[in-house]
Specification:
Elements: H1 2-20, H2 23-31, H3 41-54, H4 63-78, H5 83-97, H6 101-115, H7 118-129, H8 131-172
Length: about 180
């Protein structure tokens, strides 16, 4: 559970950062990275080791069940008389797709391998296997949740102050609101 929360928070925290990078910087970075087939198996294993240590893939385990539930709901709403048949068909389709989870695991390995050398991944694994790394994995969701709460509170306070300040300035300028 803690690792799942960590992975969600990492993805959430890093997503906007990656999106904010200039396109030129991203393309330059990608050009210096080896092609997928150029990664040694040991490099990809090191990436998977780090992913496992931080629970970086656990959060994705609910994708298939969630999609199955959504699919079931859509078909059942459309034709409730076929609820049992829909249930069977969705379950069969979902079970057939289970082996495809490896595709996502491979993609996650490549994401990490593109950004960290094998040596760096091994150092990260050593860190996350140690007492401080373990504490980091345990505390990250708590610290992140508190930081998120603090930022939302800050946003609300600043928003209210900005509205009041703007209203006061407009009134001082002789405008009625």
């Amino acid at each position: 559970m803690r690792r799942a929360a960590l992975a969600i928070l990492l993805a959430t925290a890093l997503g906007p950062v990656a999106a904010a990078l200039p396109a030129a910087a991203q393309s330059t970075t990608e050009q210096t990275v080896p092609a997928d087939e150029d990664f040694e198996a040991s490099h990809l294993r090191a990436a998977q080791n780090v992913i496992s240590l931080i629970g970086g893939d656990v959060t994705f385990d609910d994708i298939l069940p969630r999609i199955a539930n959504q699919t079931r709901a859509v078909f059942t709403r459309t034709n409730p008389a076929l609820t049992r048949e829909i249930e069977v068909a969705v379950n069969e389709a979902a079970l057939a797709m289970v082996p495809r989870r490896i595709e996502l695991s491979k993609t996650l390995q490549l994401i990490w391998a593109r950004r960290f050398s094998e040596e760096e991944l091994n150092q990260l694994a050593e860190f996350f296997n140690g007492p401080l790394g373990s504490k980091y994995v345990e505390m990250f969701p708590i610290v992140s949740a508190l930081a998120l709460g603090a930022s939302k509170q800050y946003e609300q306070v600043i928003s209210a102050e900005m509205v009041n300040e703007t209203r006061d300035r407009l009134r001082e300028a002789g405008h009625t609101l």
